[in-house]
C-alpha cells in the first residue's frame, strides 16, 4: 500500500474563499488528512457563482477536493470546547480570517500553543504589520499593492490585473512551503511554530524581476524593453519577456482572439528564424545579425516575424519553430486547455465525480512526487464528516451530536 508524503498529518482547515483553501488542498493532495471546519452555513463559496442550482459551486469544488468537512459554531461555548479538542489532536491549523478574528474567538497563539505545543499555526492575511494591516484584501488588491499591476499592460494603457491568481492561490503556495518547513523543523525541535504569509508579500516575491529592473534604471534605459521613452519608474512593456532574451506574442491565422504564438528570439535561433520568415539575408546583415543590433529594433523584428506567422495556423507555426529549436508556445484558451490530451495524460486536467452536480473538471496536483502519487477525490458536502469525526474520533455520543445539531453548535 502506498504511503503518501503527508500521511499521518492532521490539518485543521479554518479557511474560506481561495487563498487558504488553495493551500490546504495542496496539503491534502500530498496526503494530509485535511478537516475543513465550516460554520453551520458553510464556506461562502459553496453558493457563489453557482451554475447548478442547489449544488456546491465550481468555485468551492475546485478548491476543496480531498478534504473532509465538519460544521462548528465557534461563537458558542460548546463550539469552542470542541475546537480545543480538535486543536489538541492536530498537527497544523490554517486560517485566513480577518486580522484578529481567531484571537477574538479566544484562540490566541499563546492559547493555541498551550493546548498543543507541537502545532504549526499558519495564518494567511492580506498584509504584514503596518499601515495596511487592516485593509480588506482581495486578489486584485494584492496584485495592485504587490507590484504586479503597475508593470502589467501596454505602455499607453492602464495598469492591468493578471487572471493568474497570484494573490490568492500564489499566496496559498507560499503558505504550503512555510507549513512544510515548520513541520520539518518540528522533527528536530519537537516544537510547533507560528507561520504568517501575506498576500502582498507573496505577489511581491513573484514580481522580483521588476524590482531588479527598477534598480537597473539608475544606469540608463532598459534595452530589452520595447519602450521608446523611460522615466524613473519601470514602464509597462506589453508582452515583452522581461528576461535576457526578447519575446513577443505574434498573431497567427485565422486571426482569432487566441490565434497567437509566443516566440523567444535567442542568439542561436536568429539564423533559422530569419530563414523561416523568408529573410535569410538578415542572419548575416550587421544591422540584424547580433542581439545588440536587434535590441533597438525589437518592434520591427517581431513585425517581420508576424508577417510570416499571420498566414499560418498557430499549430503549424509551433511545428516550424520547434523543428528549429526556437523557444515558443501557443496561446491556449481555457477551452483548449480543458481539451488538451497531454494535460489530461499528466493528470493536470482531471474529471471528478460529485454527488450533487455530476462530474466536473478540475486542475490536478502540479507537485509530482514519485513515491506519493495523488488521486483527486470529490470535495465534501457541508458537514459530511460530522459523525465520523465527532463520534468516531472525538468520542461524542449519538445523543450529544443530536443536541449539538439542534442547538446550532454544528
Explain how this protein is built:
This protein has 410 residues and is α/β, with parallel strands linked by helices. It has 17 helices and eleven strands. It has helices at 19-29, 58-61, 77-88, 101-104, 109-115, 139-145, 169-189, 199-206, 208-216, 270-276, 291-294, 298-309, 314-323, 334-338, 341-345, 386-391, 398-406; strands at 10-14, 33-38, 67-71, 92-95, 120-125, 194-198, 247-251, 260-264, 328-330, 349-352, 360-363. It is elongated, with a radius of gyration of 26 Å. It starts with 9 loop residues before the first strand and ends with a helix.
Count up the helices: 17
Radius of gyration from the alpha-carbon trace, in angstroms: 26 Å
Q: Which range best describes the helical content: under 10%, 10-25%, 25-40%, 40-55%, 55-70% or over 70%? A: 25-40%
Shape type: elongated
Count of strand segments: 11
User: Strands of the biggest beta sheet: in what spatial order?
Assistant: 3-2-1-4-5-6
Mean pLDDT score, rounded? Answer: 96
Q: What is the terminal separation in angstroms? A: 35 Å
Largest sheet: 6 strands, parallel
β-strand percent reads: 5-15%
Structural class, by secondary structure, is: alpha/beta
Uncertain segments are none
Amino acid at each position: 500500500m502506498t504511503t503518501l508524503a503527508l500521511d499521518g498529518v492532521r490539518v485543521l482547515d479554518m479557511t474560506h474563499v481561495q487563498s487558504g483553501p488553495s493551500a490546504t488542498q495542496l496539503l491534502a493532495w500530498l496526503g494530509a488528512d485535511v478537516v475543513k471546519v465550516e460554520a453551520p452555513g458553510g464556506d461562502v463559496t459553496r453558493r457563489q457563482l453557482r451554475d447548478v442550482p442547489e449544488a456546491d459551486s465550481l468555485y468551492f469544488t475546485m478548491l476543496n477536493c480531498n478534504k473532509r468537512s465538519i460544521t462548528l459554531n465557534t461563537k458558542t461555548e460548546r463550539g469552542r470546547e470542541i475546537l480545543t479538542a480538535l486543536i489538541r489532536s492536530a498537527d497544523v491549523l490554517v486560517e485566513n480570517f480577518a486580522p484578529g478574528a481567531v484571537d477574538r474567538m479566544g484562540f490566541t497563539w499563546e492559547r493555541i500553543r498551550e493546548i498543543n505545543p507541537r502545532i504549526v499555526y499558519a495564518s494567511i492575511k492580506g498584509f504584514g504589520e503596518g499601515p495596511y494591516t487592516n485593509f480588506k484584501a482581495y486578489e486584485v488588491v494584492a496584485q495592485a499593492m504587490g507590484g504586479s499591476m503597475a508593470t502589467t499592460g501596454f505602455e499607453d494603457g492602464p495598469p492591468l490585473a493578471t487572471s493568474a491568481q497570484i494573490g490568492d492561490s500564489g499566496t496559498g503556495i507560499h503558505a504550503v512551503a512555510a507549513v512544510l518547513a515548520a513541520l520539518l523543523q518540528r522533527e528536530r525541535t519537537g516544537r510547533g511554530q507560528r507561520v504568517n504569509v501575506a498576500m502582498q508579500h507573496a505577489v511581491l516575491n513573484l514580481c522580483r524581476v521588476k524590482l531588479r529592473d527598477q534598480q537597473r534604471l539608475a544606469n540608463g534605459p532598459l534595452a530589452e524593453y520595447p519602450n521608446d521613452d523611460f522615466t524613473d519608474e519601470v514602464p509597462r512593456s506589453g508582452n515583452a519577456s522581461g528576461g535576457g532574451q526578447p519575446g513577443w506574442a505574434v498573431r497567427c491565422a485565422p486571426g482569432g482572439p487566441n490565434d497567437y504564438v509566443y516566440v523567444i528570439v535567442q542568439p542561436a535561433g536568429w539564423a533559422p528564424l530569419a530563414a523561416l520568415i523568408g529573410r535569410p539575408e538578415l542572419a548575416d546583415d550587421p544591422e540584424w545579425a547580433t542581439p545588440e543590433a536587434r535590441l533597438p529594433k525589437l518592434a520591427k523584428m517581431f513585425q517581420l516575424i508576424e508577417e510570416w506567422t499571420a498566414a499560418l495556423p498557430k499549430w503549424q507555426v509551433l511545428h516550424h519553430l520547434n523543428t528549429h529549436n526556437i523557444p515558443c508556445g501557443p496561446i491556449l484558451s481555457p477551452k483548449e486547455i480543458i481539451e488538451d490530451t497531454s494535460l489530461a495524460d499528466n493528470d493536470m486536467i482531471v474529471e471528478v465525480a460529485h454527488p450533487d452536480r455530476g462530474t466536473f473538471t478540475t486542475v490536478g496536483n502540479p507537485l509530482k512526487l514519485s513515491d506519493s502519487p495523488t488521486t483527486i477525490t470529490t470535495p465534501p458536502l457541508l458537514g459530511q464528516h460530522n459523525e465520523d469525526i465527532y463520534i468516531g474520533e472525538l468520542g461524542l455520543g449519538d445523543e450529544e451530536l443530536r443536541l449539538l445539531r439542534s442547538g446550532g453548535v454544528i
